[in-house]
Design goal:
The structure is a homodimer of 333-residue chains. Chain A is an all-alpha fold. Helices cover 73% and strands 1% of the residues of chain A.
Chain lengths: 333, 333
Amino acid sequence: MTAVAESRAPVHVGVDIALVVPELRRWIDRLGPDLSPICAHQLGADCGKLVRPTLVFACAQAVGGSTGDALPGAVAVELIHNASLIHDDVMDGDEFRRHRPTVWKQYGVAQAVLAGDALIGLAFEALATDAARENAGAAAADLARAVRALAIGQHADLRLEGSTTATTAECLALMAGKTGALLGVACRLGARLGGAPSGWLDGFTDYGGNLGVAFQLVDDLLGVWGDPAVTGKPTGSDLRARKNTAPVAAALARSGAAPARLRALYQSQAPMTDHDVAEATALVERAGGRAWTVDQCHRHVARAWDALDRLPLDADARDALRDLADRVVARMP
Amino acid sequence: MTAVAESRAPVHVGVDIALVVPELRRWIDRLGPDLSPICAHQLGADCGKLVRPTLVFACAQAVGGSTGDALPGAVAVELIHNASLIHDDVMDGDEFRRHRPTVWKQYGVAQAVLAGDALIGLAFEALATDAARENAGAAAADLARAVRALAIGQHADLRLEGSTTATTAECLALMAGKTGALLGVACRLGARLGGAPSGWLDGFTDYGGNLGVAFQLVDDLLGVWGDPAVTGKPTGSDLRARKNTAPVAAALARSGAAPARLRALYQSQAPMTDHDVAEATALVERAGGRAWTVDQCHRHVARAWDALDRLPLDADARDALRDLADRVVARMP
């Protein structure tokens, strides 16, 4: 492993995140001249926000580990994340992501299915090959459990799509699977590869899992009220596609005139016009969907803090991870 | 591990194959009430021929290991195999497999993509969770490399689809990726989990890889000349879909009247009639496509035997693995 002695100090969260980009590219190059450009298209020039690798490194550092030890975990979770984006876009028929056509839109469904499969395999290869030998098997099992939760969460997402009767509990459970599981395992892998005692690992999963739900709630808010220049998606695209995101589910779960009108807009077969999207946006807010989502976001960040409080971390390490959690909320529109 | 002392004898190849079915079902049940029935549909009542688990067990026994030690490897390769079938059927648009509608045909493309992803994750989970701790990481890395080769092979398959200029070398390389890699890793995992010295593992991969190509060549022959009652596919379905299988590629690589007429049938945009399929079948045979494929099949089985000869195995173990290789050829129509 390429352990860097200087980075053992537990506070420099995010400092070495740039390490992960060349390592992602090195692994993707192994997919050969046909598949690697397709996967590189998905990652883009900057590889996106790298939220999951940041969590891996932060948690490794919080337990006194190095970014070098944690790097295989950082690469693996980011590869799984991109695989799930490619396949989710196929399933949802989404045409744009990160200001670019999605993989299936650019290369066709068959290539997108294949590129996602290749990235899932590559994630396990990177982790099992490069993690320290004593951790590799357990780390691969951690990641695989998260992939299972991700699949079950995505299934719930497909099932609830088009539903106007999803409960907020179903919506939160779906987020715990779709986003919570991967952010949870990012934190767990960071702690494991960083050398944490095994008794600490569930606490890190809990921290990351709650952070993941908060993160997804913010994403759902951005999908309605976010700036297209920031999100890379057209304004109101989630409403236009009648996606059952958290603010909408919370609004539809209420009774009254605004939820009833919103339900009618969602149940109509006609394409949503710009006017419909604007009206739906106002209705979600009026029915309390925005307020509920903001409140839930704060609750999940608080639970992430609680998980940290139960771990015997140094004060500096705890502060660094609290700070990361707060940064999630700071993106909220 | 549930090592069974009695099964340490290296000759009872295939005896314990029934162990793998309940273990496959136990893992698939973990996918929950929505996804597990979809995956169970793919596996079917009998879980198919279980060729890959048979190889895992046979190779474990050949090195003096038990089926109990090898079981996580057997489960993992069979789950990957089924995942790749589900996704290949999506990519190829195939509607029937094992006498049943394919997963995408029965449940839709989104569910099929998801079910395949879930099975890939589950394969790594089964392997990394249940393999002996000292082997788990290396075994997961083995499996992941095979998944990469599988994806690259499937990409070549998609690229060559509809081509009438694919060389026989391209065709064999594609088979080495699509089928050879998984049968190769089945043998490698069997040997690894069975306790083989690490210096033996490449020999087992070589044995399984060559066997895999032979196996695929037989499958390609069955796709043209096989009995539909045995193959579960309509007669001549590969020709009807203008698939570029080995006999066709070999026939098209020749010059003369028969290849020219076959090329015209393959390049036509019109749907193949029953008459066209019958004519194409005769043309492939006349152009030497069948003879070439049969010859290549024997060559690859011979190479599998050679790989065994280079391993310091007991005579009984070697005979058992030679016998398995011969059984592949025995399916040849």
